[in-house]
Amino acid sequence: METKEQIAARIIKQEVLVCVSSLVVTLANGQLFSDLHQDMLELSEKAIALREPVADYEEALIQAGFVRNRYGAWYHEELEGSWEDAQEACDECRINYIDREVYEFWAVSDWLARRLEEQGEKVDTDFAGLNVWARTETGQALTYDAAIMQIAENLSTITA
Questions:
Q1: pTM to 2 decimals?
Q2: CA distances from residue 104 to 18, 19, 59, 101, 142 in whole angstroms, order as listed
Q3: Is the pLDDT of residue 92 over 80?
Q4: Same structural domain, 105 and 141
């Protein structure tokens, strides 16, 4: 049976196509030129949106002392009620979300794009025909990215 790390390494090898960080940054900076063709202008706007920080509601709740109950809902022992959705809990309890900075951009397969979106990752599924993942972790191999490790863990429990 494969370990979670082996599954994660296989996902990276089979589902990650190429790093497109330079492309996204270049296009995002191109927004300043008014003579860009309409398609390039639209792609530049998408690049700018990809570079925006990712709102992390779950981490904000964790830092505020919230936990998940056995049904997966968020609750705080000092508050009444529970919330299925982390954003709704933050909004109702007036908790500011945490911005996760985007560091890298990777072209990924359709399959991995869907799995990353399920993990709450930012993915543009039509960036000039590519699926581009806006990665909020850096300084380590893709295999050890928290989202990839969670996908690998989910797969390992399915096959176990």
A1: 0.74
A2: 11, 8, 20, 10, 10
A3: yes
A4: yes
